[in-house]
Amino acid sequence: MTAVHQFVQIGSHALVGGGTLLNKDVPPYVRISRFPASYIGVNTIGLRRRGFTSEKIRSIQGIYHKLFVENKNISKGIIAIDESIEDSDEKNLILQFARASKNGLIKGLKRRGKADLHFHFTQSMKCLVRIFTKPVVPFTTACKSYNKSSQKT
Predict the structure, then answer these.
(1) Contact 66/80 with Cβ under 8 angstroms?
(2) Measured in Å, how far apart are the chain's first and last C-alpha atoms?
């Protein structure tokens, strides 16, 4: 289930991951997920199913790369797209959507720093250690019961 705040706009051909909480506008053609809702890529499979050519899909990917990956600020991304990418229906739709947004757009890709990754890795390893160091039946007990049953026969 996905919760969408009132007045939030979701662009055409967008794919929203399950459990995502939307409080910002979702531009067309994107896949979003996580909390807070973040851009995770272009909805390439959905676009192919809807008849978009590979060339158009690559163009859309280029636009969103400029908007969400290369630029940390949406307004700077819009300017960069305007200046460097050829005009197309897709570009015009994306820019029109971004400029008309009253709630702001979702966040772009967030790269995790080394400290973040180290923390998550450490937590994962602690969990694995807990799982594998607490056997359901201690090994020595299992061996003793096996040996007793094999001696009776």
Answers:
(1) yes
(2) 57
Q: What region does 30 belong to: left with phi over 0, alpha with psi -120 to 50, or beta?
A: beta
For 21-77, write each residue's pLDDT tens digit: 999 999 999 999 887 889 999 999 999 999 999 999 999 999 999 999 888 789 999
Tally of residues, the chain: 153
Cβ count within 10 A of residue 24: 19
Give the pTM.
0.69
- How far is CA 152 from each of CA 25, 139, 141, 144, 147, rounded to the nearest angstrom? 72, 21, 17, 13, 9
Spatial strand order in the sheet of 38-42: 15-16, 30-33, 38-42
Q: Which of 104, 125, 121, 105 has the alpha carbon at shortest distance from 113?
A: 121
Tell me the β-bridge partners of 15. Answer: 31
Tokens matching residue 40: 């995770």
Cis ω on the peptide bond leading into residue 27 (within 30° of 0)?
no
